[in-house]
Design a protein that fits this description.
This protein is mainly α. The chain has 6 helices and no strands. The chain is globular, with a radius of gyration of 18 Å.
């Protein structure tokens, strides 16, 4: 039996809600602190929370059972995440959350393009139209009038 909790759509919507809250909380939180140091504090909190969740739910895995390819791509993902967070917090420090967040969400457009180029994913004409509309919407929301 499929429940709302077992669908990707449910978790994607929650991700969007928490990402929105992240922008608002971060904008207030970095007001009187260096953005890189703020990113460090955020990262430590995330590390502690995730370690607690993994330990509490018994989702640990022996490190030796993980392939070199998996390690390589998880490390690259971690580096990209860290770079993204540093840039995001710096942008929030300098700009308005309502303008920074939409530009950050251009990542959706880039994921679609990179997915096609690097992963061989296929998008229909309607999908490409959606990608174009997301790009246009992000630019329109971020543009000051």
């Amino acid at each position: 039996m499929t429940t709302a909790f077992s669908t990707w759509q449910f978790w994607a919507i929650l991700s969007a809600v928490f990402a929105a809250l992240t922008a608002i909380f971060a904008k207030v939180g970095i007001e009187n602190i260096n953005s890189d140091f703020a990113t460090l504090i955020r990262t430590v909190v995330i590390l502690l929370v995730l370690a607690g969740i993994v330990a509490a739910t018994g989702q640990t895995q022996a490190l030796g059972t993980i392939s070199a390819k998996t390690y390589t791509f998880l490390i690259l993902s971690g580096l990209a995440t860290g770079a993204s967070w540093l840039c995001y917090f710096r942008a929030l420090k300098l700009g308005n959350a309502a303008q920074v967040a939409p530009i950050d969400k251009l990542s959706v457009v880039l994921v679609a393009v990179f997915g096609v180029i690097f992963l061989g994913e296929r998008l229909s004409a309607a999908n490409w139209l959606g990608v174009a509309l997301i790009a246009a919407g992000a630019v329109l929301v971020a543009t000051r009038s």
